[in-house]
Amino acid sequence: MTARLDVLSAGYAADRVASTVVLIRDEDAVVVVDPGMVASRQRILGPLAELGVDPASVSDVVFSHHHPDHTLNAALFERARFHDFWAIYQDDTWTDRAADGFELSPSVTLMTTPGHTLQDITTLAATDEGLAACTHLWWSSEGPAVDPLAEDQELLERSRARLLALSPALIVPGHGAPFAPVQV
What we know:
- The chain is about 15% helix and about 30% strand.
- With about 180 residues, it is of the alpha+beta class.
- The longest helix is centred in the C-terminal third of the chain and has 12 residues.
């Protein structure tokens, strides 16, 4: 069995900003990636309802990094475990763990991909269409090629190369619609 990935809200970054919010389902795992800023919470809750997913059934929330545009609506998922680059948080429990290679489910893992921030992670989902990567290594398919807010552009380029070496079929960028990467 492989994971199913649905984009709940495709993000953007211009005069206004919204993160791309993703739902991944794999066996018992119901994962939301980057429930950040959106024009209305209905941009998250509406698509979840259409897919038959109750917010209380979300088991895990992943933050690609800790900027508010990627985390602001985390409280919609009150029963979830929350994941970042170094720990799992649930209720009043903080469990340290390395993100790189951490399995949320049989088909969903985390990968450290620093560059935009030094704490960035990517969520990898093995789907029927191939490997999908929810990541802020790209803002959108249109760019920018150089991240204007990167803490370390050189490190970001190395993280991009490391991810592309896995031959993902789909990139789900931080602020745009999914796209097929150009393999070099």
